[in-house]
Design goal:
5 helices, 143 residues, mainly alpha
Length: 143
């Protein structure tokens, strides 16, 4: 997507990061005796948004050159390298690998039910049986 395609009701002026989250990050990074002014925080947010925009634009160009329609992590790493941010690549690679691992683990958890080998009808029957047993137990306690 070129810069010309970005114009419209949701222009770059509306892009930002959550102020409370950025403030929390600043507080975690700074010594306890240092206070960050709100205008400094806002400037930092603007810088972060601009950095993200720069990396995303470069990654998009790389993606388009490869005739891909989706920006992948590899495109972001290539963008960092192309823009001279080689110092970040090692850490970004580590975070990216950890993200892929978490995604794979999440996918495994979501398919656990599918791997039980029990049909949906059987699962519903078992659920209804458990509800009936619970109802009987509850009614017995009420008497």
């Amino acid at each position: 997507m070129s810069d010309n395609e970005r114009s419209g009701p949701t222009g770059d002026d509306e892009l930002s990061l959550p102020k409370a989250t950025v403030q929390k990050l600043i507080n975690e990074m700074m010594p306890d005796d240092v206070i960050c002014a709100k205008d400094t925080r806002d400037l930092l947010i603007d810088c972060c948004v601009e950095f993200i925009h720069l990396i995303a634009s470069e990654a998009n160009e790389i993606c388009e050159k490869e005739t891909k329609k989706t920006i992948a992590g590899e495109h972001v790493v290539s963008a960092l390298q192309a823009l001279g941010f080689e110092d970040y690549i090692e850490e970004v690679d580590e975070v990216f690998k950890e993200h892929k691992k978490q995604q794979k683990d999440r996918d495994k958890k979501s398919t656990r039910l599918e791997n039980t080998g029990i049909s949906e009808e059987e699962l519903l029957r078992q659920q209804e049986l458990l509800f009936a047993q619970s109802r009987l137990k509850f009614e017995a306690q009420q008497q």
